[in-house]
Give the backbone structure.
Amino acid sequence: MKSKKINLLFNDPLAVAGIIILTIFIIIAIFAPQIAPYDPNEIIRVDGKIQRLQRPSGEFIFGTTYMGRDIFSQVVIGSRIALRVGLLAAIFVAIIGTAVGLVSGYYGGWIDTIAMRFVDILYGIPFIPFVIILVSLLKPSIWNIILAVSILTWRTVARIVRSQVLSIIQRPYIKAARVAGASDFRIMVFHILPNILPLIFVEMSFIVGWAIISEASVSFVGFGDPRVVSWGKILHTAFNNGAVRVAPWWVAPPGFAIVLLVISVFLISRGIEQAINPRLRDGR
């Protein structure tokens, strides 16, 4: 069954395109120091003259910034931050959301009521103001952005998992496991969790894209980690220097990288969803 679903995924041309694009980004992130021709923070000088706002050329593939830094090197190094934020946030969100949704749906009653009311409260918290407050209380860092995404995004996973658990616990094999004396923990982990894992993986793929956009948004408004180079920070610096009008080559590469990476993740999530849901494959 698993091999059949994997074959269905790789038979989807859009999903394959997404996998190829994501793989390229992963390779770039792994070998970023070797691929980047310059240090992303290096001020490049030629004959003692700073190479400010150089247009894309053979020497500077994406051109240079107002401070003479190589944009191509910054975009390559920034891929590491994007993937780190996306993957770690997705893992944390999946763990928290699955745990809450599983316990809430299985036990029901006052546990379910408290958990779902807390989820409702989280839905009323806007993301960007929440991050601003969190950064003010702590400090600007990538880990605080991951923390903010994890705190606010697990709510959706919890609701989805809970709804599936409410359906699964009514099935005969769950009742048979209870009659056989299986503990609640064993039923949740060995009988319910395997049935909702495909759905969790689909949600994780969506969360990766959301986390990447969130990091770029937070860095763009100036609340990113000042010690690292990210795509959002590149856009933030470019915007502050008026590059949208005078140096479009400064804005386009990081913006295109964000769009391309998020689209690749969406195409993969779409392929996974169709592979595990027969109704979507049949067009119903």
In short: The chain has a mean pLDDT of 85. The CA atoms of residues 75 and 257 lie 8 Å apart. The chain is about 75% helix and 0% strand.
